[in-house]
């Protein structure tokens, strides 16, 4: 089903329920049952994976994949909703091995586990609107974090998911985090096209909520006056590609997280030049090379408590799935950064 059709399916369903004179209370009960079942499935998967890790011993933190296939808050294309299964497929693709660059083995459950996806479309089909849906995403993340030593590595999805994920991480840990955000765009509009939850407004919601102490945005090359003004308003450290050669040494030697609850990393795949990752909704030339990104991530000093990889659009990828492999490599190397 196409993104636009999927986005209106739940509206038609609720209209039919209303026409059939189904009470609002009955609809609410049905929605709650679907949400409870969704959270229960993630909770039981997380418990099972965490029990195995605790039995194996010797692990302080393990990256745990959580898919959030949400695309309807995109301002252009909704294809990122289809990304999580494509990323998983690429992670385990036989064209490469299971080792990260520093030698951690992804097929070791102490390094990487997977608790499945939040069933976004199924929940929306029940008529659940975004305020509540964002709460479900946050609760799903907290459910993973409740099971030591799991740490969420979230597969998007459009960038709107970062707001409920960061909110959950901050609330669960009991304080703000430092955020390293790699992106072509600052995603800090106050309210883009009338949508408070737009993928272009996620970091405005994060900063308003006090969930981040420092926000570093790297790779910017499509930024408006509002984006710069909002950055100044919230004290964001914005690093644009036009000055990257000057900023490179600093960005490849970042030390974050001291005095707060840890570091959150958000990687929008379009931070990369489209020569490396054409499968994105917003193609913006002049971006980071893949090695630039890895140098920033691998040299980052700090306790990475959670991360996301977002905005991969399989519907715009090459036939051989090049961008899927790029997104998978980002996930693999973030796994190495999180797990210990």
From TrEMBL:
The keyword Aminoacyl-tRNA synthetase belongs to this UniProt entry's keyword annotation: no
Note on cofactor: Binds 2 manganese ions per subunit.
Cofactor(s) named in the record: Mn(2+)
Superkingdom of source: Eukaryota
Enzyme Commission code(s) on record: 3.5.3.1
CDD domains xrefs: Agmatinase-like_2
Chemical reaction(s) catalysed: L-arginine + H2O = urea + L-ornithine
Keywords of the record: Arginine metabolism, Hydrolase, Manganese, Metal-binding
Family annotation (SUPFAM superfamilies): Arginase/deacetylase
Keyword Nucleus: no
EC class (word): hydrolase
Alphabetized Pfam families for the sequence: Arginase (PF00491)
UniProt record, GO biological process: putrescine biosynthetic process from arginine, via agmatine
Ligand binding (Mn(2+)): 159, 183, 185, 187, 268, 270
Function of the protein: Catalyzes the hydrolysis of L-arginine to urea and L-ornithine. The latter can be utilized in the urea cycle or as a precursor for the synthesis of both polyamines and proline.
Protein name: Arginase 1, mitochondrial
Organism field: Setaria viridis (Green bristlegrass)
């Amino acid at each position: 089903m196409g993104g636009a059709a999927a986005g209106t399916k739940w509206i038609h369903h609720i209209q039919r329920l209303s026409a059939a004179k189904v009470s609002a209370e009955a609809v609410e009960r049905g929605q709650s049952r679907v949400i409870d079942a969704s959270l229960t499935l993630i909770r039981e998967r997380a418990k099972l994976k965490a029990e195995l890790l605790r039995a194996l011993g010797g692990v302080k933190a393990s990256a745990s994949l959580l898919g959030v296939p949400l695309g309807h808050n995109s301002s252009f294309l909704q294809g990122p909703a289809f990304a999580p299964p494509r990323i998983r497929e690429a992670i385990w693709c036989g064209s490469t091995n299971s080792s990260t660059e520093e030698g951690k083995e992804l097929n070791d459950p102490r390094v990487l586990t997977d608790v499945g996806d939040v069933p976004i479309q199924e929940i929306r089909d029940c008529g659940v609107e975004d305020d509540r849906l964002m709460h479900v995403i946050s609760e799903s993340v907290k459910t993973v974090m409740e099971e030591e030593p799991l740490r969420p590595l979230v597969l998007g999805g459009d960038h709107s998911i970062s707001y409920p994920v960061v909110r959950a991480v901050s609330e669960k840990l009991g304080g703000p985090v430092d955020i390293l955000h790699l992106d072509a765009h600052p995603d800090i509009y106050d309210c883009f096209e009338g949508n408070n939850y737009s993928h272009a407004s996620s970091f405005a919601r994060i900063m308003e909520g006090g969930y981040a102490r420092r926000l570093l945005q790297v790779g910017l090359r499509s930024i408006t006056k509002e984006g710069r003004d909002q950055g100044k308003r919230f004290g964001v450290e914005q690093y644009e590609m036009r000055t990257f050669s000057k900023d490179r040494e600093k960005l490849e030697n970042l030390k974050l997280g001291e005095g707060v609850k840890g570091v959150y990393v958000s990687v929008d795949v379009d931070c990369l030049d489209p020569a490396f990752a054409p499968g994105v909704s917003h193609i913006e030339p002049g971006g980071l090379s893949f090695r630039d990104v890895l140098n920033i991530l691998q040299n980052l000093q700090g306790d990475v408590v959670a991360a996301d990889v977002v905005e991969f659009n399989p519907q715009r990828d090459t036939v051989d799935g090049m961008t899927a492999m790029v997104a998978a490599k980002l996930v693999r190397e973030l796994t190495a950064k999180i797990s210990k």
